[in-house]
Amino acid sequence: MGKGFFLSKGVGVLLIICGAASVATIIALSVVYSQEKAKNNEVSPTNGGSTTNPPVTTPAPTTSNKPWDQYRLPKTLVPEHYNLMLRPRLTPDETTKLYIFTGESSVDFKCVEETDLILIHSNKLNYTKAPTLESVNPAVTAPNINKYWLQKVTQYLVIELDAKLKKDHMYRLSTDFVGELADDLGGFYRSEYEEDGVKRYGCCNNSMQPTDARKSFPCFDEPALKAVFNITLTHPQGTIALTGPSLGNKLIQTTFAPTEKMSTYLLAYIVSDFDFVNNTIDGVLIRIFARKSAIAAGQGEYALNTTGPILKFFEDYYNSKYPLPKSDQIALPDFNAGAMENWGLITYRETALLYDPEFSSNGNKERIATIIAHELAHMWFGNLVTLRWWNDLWLNEGFASYVEYLGANYAEPDWGMADLIVLNDVHRVFAVDALTSSHPLSSKEEDIQRPEQISELFDAISYSKGASVLRMLSDFLTEDVFKMGLRTYLKEFAFGNTVYSDLWKHLQDAVDNTPLPGLPNTVADIMNTWVLQMGFPVVTIDTASGTVTQKHFLLDPDSEVTVVSPFKYQWTVPIKWMKTGTEQKPVWLVEKSETVDMMKATGTDWVLANLNVVGYYRVNYDQSNWNKLLNALNTNHSVIPVINRAQLVDDAFNMARAKIVSTTLALSTTVYLDKERDFMPWESATDNMDFFYLMFDRSEVYGHMQAYLQKQVIPLFNYYKAETGNWTKDLPGHLDQYNLVNAISLACKTGHKECTDLAKGWFEMWMNNPAKNPIHPNLRSTVYCNAIAAGGAKEWEFAWAQFTKANAIEADKLRYAMACTKEPWLLNRYLEYTLTPEKMRKQDATSTIVYIANNVVGQALTWDFIRARWTYIFNEYGGGSFSFSNLINGVTKRFSTEFELKQLRQFKEDNADIGFGSGTLAVDQSIERTISNMKWIEENTKTVSNWFQEAIKPL
Ligand SMILES: *[C@@H]1O[C@H](CO)[C@@H](O)[C@H](O)[C@H]1NC(C)=O
Ligand SMILES: *[C@@H]1O[C@H](CO)[C@@H](O)[C@H](O)[C@H]1NC(C)=O
Ligand SMILES: *[C@@H]1O[C@H](CO)[C@@H](O)[C@H](O)[C@H]1NC(C)=O
Ligand SMILES: *[C@@H]1O[C@H](CO)[C@@H](O)[C@H](O)[C@H]1NC(C)=O
Ligand SMILES: [Zn+2]
């Protein structure tokens, strides 16, 4: 998937666009073959049929060694082919009042080991008649079914036979079933939206990853059990003349051409009444689907424009033709993750695919380009070649999260966005990976069994650390060698499955075929130190002696690492570096400590390591070298590359938290900012100041900090005021546009009156004339937020009224900004709205709660709210959701008192029986973070307060 924070997912095998409440044309799409085969057989609608449920067993004792109590399938049967017919009902069933779908499925499988037991995944499906088993070869007879039942916990349909299936014979299992078309955003699900005041059921979206295909039809639901799928959908035929909720009584049956051999989690079928825009590039049909109003407004055009070039980029990068004849991408009104890489039918949140110059910021646009690149990268890496099991998810997601920057940079070369991986991924994941509750990238296959264990892997470590270490690998191998290994890997394993070491092997072959300047070890040996142990090192360079040492970097130096590492927390570290502004020959740090004579620096010479932050580690120096670096920043900061200016700030602040350097040293790295105009260092500084805000916005330090930051940001604010001709002109540069937002956000946050007046003035102009919004799309989030924070109920109600009629792009900005109000009663009411689906889409609930918690006034309200509603949230939003860890981390990140720690522990205890699902690890991370925050505040408040007071004294 795309990231859920940004999670992405994948598989579109089939897409039927079918008419719903007020019905329009029906279009059937085959994902995999170019010619789709719509038979257009009219069939009359029938009822779902009565249900005869097989018995359902009670939860199994965890100690059971029965095959059906194991989460992994036995290795006895291998599917080859599915025939699947599905029929979603767009009106509720008369008796049960449920929205349902009915299905018929047969699967041809081969017996590879004799057995008298068939286990096939099935979740929340009811069987309407007894399953039947036949032999595909008429000369062989199939055993009879003795009995069958549903094993609820492990999600199986279990079939016991009266005799053994014979090795190497093919059998066919046929089932008729019914399932609920729920609005739970998982599997085959229902989605409702309104257009022109008419409620529409854009029914039957689809989200299978990781383990929800089994909610749609019985299947061998493991990524290595690839098969070919023949799929037929029955759906209502709409006529444009028809309005209102009537569906008419005509049905259409659409049969798709067989898919390529593929994993179940990458399947997709969708029924909706959407429109599309299309193009054909080198024989590949590209279509962008969205609700009619969005397509009519031209919002699919940017995605259509960028998809072709990005596909061509990846064909070249992988040296492999796009494996399918078409590439469909669809924007869904309800979607949990950011996007999902279904093969040939990629699904997105509306805001991740639709662009509208009138509403979208440049950040929205960049997100679209990067998510498209991420998902298209999966078409090969992930879909064509698939990791055998979910424990290697990090390689799939880390890879796509790395090359998304390359693909997007190719589509938008003027943006200069490739380096942003340092802020978005490397710095971001450092924060998590510096905790003792982190985990290695790679997990053991046997440790990842249950669906929630799989879901839990969709985290920052898999995505961002995966991306960071692959970027480092590509850098020290050189991109050419990296591509060479990648290409032979994809070629060897096309339509098959792999483990991560298969990629290392191919990269090693590429290395062996190229005269590379020596690596200190094999690719596998180097990479294992990054993949098989959690965390990362801080490399310390003593420029007096030239000694270079490494140590496991822990945010809390007193925390205890209880997990034993096979490498004793030592890494094989590639070091690119410069001396006094001139790049030097890279070195490797293999041992705990080594001496590099070249790194001695005397006089005015200084050393700067981890150039452009291609390495996944932090760097510390002796005090004298730090002083020289600070001096360089303050006198002529451009001698230090811009990415490393961002690095110096981020490393210093984090090493200060880890008590490796002093907090005053960290604060000193911000002194030069009044002269800095580049985005990356400012962004790095504001990210780190966020922590100071979280720790101090309830304390006396706050005032001094505000005064200091205001002093630092005013020159930037004035610079942009001049550059934009007093806020009237657009800036050309993409990163400049970002930094302009930083300038306004921080100036307003620190209470700079000119800034607040500006925001209030713009917002008031809009309130006076709602039809004409005068605020530039890039500035809307921050201007709305500041105007609402400065205002009261009137501003808030106006924003809410706009929100209820806004398109998805605009709605996201308002949704964020409404969390900025300082009125507790408005925040409390807003919290209630988050759990009211008529007011807010389920997909947006958790992120809105986190926005409210970010507000110092909302913090305590949110925590009370979460604790009071945990059971409800967990049950209602837990199903298809990947965002529990974001929710828990988000709501607790300000925690820094004994009392909050106690409450957090109590919360963990009180809900032990319900659990925390994919947020389990986040609870422990939050406890660890709270303890470390408490210590930090105790040790630093005085120093920090004094430092700010000194820094704002007039000279
Ligand atoms: C499946 O059967 C259960 C138990 O009888 C029932 O509660 C549920 O509503 C059924 N689901 C569907 C979609 O018919
Ligand atoms: C799948 O569909 C193809 C073409 O429509 C057909 O030739 C093939 O027999 C089908 N496979 C099975 C197992 O029914
Ligand atoms: C776009 O779709 C229309 C309708 O299906 C088709 O007639 C047209 O040829 C397509 N255009 C391209 C460039 O693929
Ligand atoms: C898409 O490309 C066309 C042709 O190059 C261009 O005119 C149009 O402005 C582009 N649209 C967007 C939204 O980028
Ligand atoms: Zn992905």
UniProtKB/TrEMBL annotation:
Entry-linked CDD domains: M1_APN-Q_like
Name this polypeptide is given: Aminopeptidase
Domain Aminopeptidase N-like N-terminal: 78-266
Gene3D superfamilies: 1.25.50.20, 2.60.40.1910, Neutral Protease Domain 2, tricorn interacting facor f3 domain
InterPro entries reported in the protein's UniProt record: Aminopeptidase_N-like_N, Aminopeptidase_N-like_N_sf, ERAP1-like_C_dom, M1_APN-typ, Peptidase_M1, Peptidase_M1_aminopeptidases, Peptidase_M1_dom, Peptidase_M4/M1_CTD_sf
Localization per Swiss-Prot or TrEMBL: Cell membrane
UniProt GO molecular function: metalloaminopeptidase activity; peptide binding; zinc ion binding
Subunit-structure text: Homodimer.
Compositionally biased intervals (Polar residues): 41-50
Protein family: Belongs to the peptidase M1 family.
A single BP term in Gene Ontology: proteolysis
Gene Ontology cellular component terms for the protein in this record: cytoplasm; extracellular space; plasma membrane
Transmembrane parts of this sequence: 12-33
Taxonomy of the source species: Eukaryota, Metazoa, Chordata, Craniata, Vertebrata
